[in-house]
User: Fold this.
Amino acid sequence: MDLLQSRIVWEGKWRLRVDSFRLPDGRLYERGRIEHPGAVVLVPVVPGEAGPAVLMLRQYRVALDQTILELPAGTREPDEPWLVCAQRELREETGQRAETLTPLGEVWAAPGLSNERMALFLAEGLSDDPLPMDMDEEIAVEPWPLAELATMALDGRLDDAKSVAGILRAAHHLGL
Amino acid sequence: MDLLQSRIVWEGKWRLRVDSFRLPDGRLYERGRIEHPGAVVLVPVVPGEAGPAVLMLRQYRVALDQTILELPAGTREPDEPWLVCAQRELREETGQRAETLTPLGEVWAAPGLSNERMALFLAEGLSDDPLPMDMDEEIAVEPWPLAELATMALDGRLDDAKSVAGILRAAHHLGL
Assistant:
């Protein structure tokens, strides 16, 4: 396939690049891919009577037109250091600051169409320190037992890919 | 925020919709979201001497400009039944047909920007039955021990979100 053109079709928090090709049989073919600055995913853990609990979000997602249960997460600003981004998103979405942020590895969100890299962090030692939310966010914070979330990640009741990865890595890290 | 316009900016295997808003202070604001037909993710398991092995892919991803280790997966055709899609993608990417496909739940791939729903399946009872690959795929099939993949999913060496979810759900389902 010969690449004829590569152009940015739209740009916002991320951008869409479209590559155009000439196929061997002469037809034209377009392939889109998202250029994304990356994102952080937080697993904010608080001690609980029956083991650690996680501050989950019940969040309305415009792209889905529904409300889902997921870990706090957010898009990195261009050139923003990952740990700075992690602390900022945690404060915006849960109103908490973390004393320690422990890396839980990274994941590609959707490598078939996007270069979005997600960096996962265990957030511990939380204390009140809120920042204003993004204007288009509708969020409620819900503490859930980590052990129950791990079961839900495995049986399918937790159905957000980054949250499945974050919860199971956190449970493993904490020896659950 | 008042919605001024909602338009399709590009369409290929999936499409980009952009909503335009007028903010309370008068400024314009655009938000992009991907409308996606959904995808399947396969965990193709074969018996091995040291426990079950999984047919993983070593695949070049244009969006990342790199080769990653991941589970076989693929985009659903519009209106294609999920099980038909699962069998087709398995045959295209691994050359194998499955006697049984067991649902392992679903996950949202990237709900902040896309409505892509991924349906995960355990594929067992494999036999040779290849289909031609998509023209733009560069794939090598590699069998890996499931127990090792589960460890890699937890410690971060496996770094593709759908694959982390699929491997850990399959290991749980098979009692590993």
Observations:
- The radius of gyration of chain B is 19 Å.
- Strands of chain B lie at 2-11, 15-22, 28-35, 39-46, 53-61, 66-70, 73-75, 96-108, 117-128, 139-145.
- Chain B touches chain A through 55 residues (CB under 8 Å).
- Chain B has two domains: 2-34, 37-173.
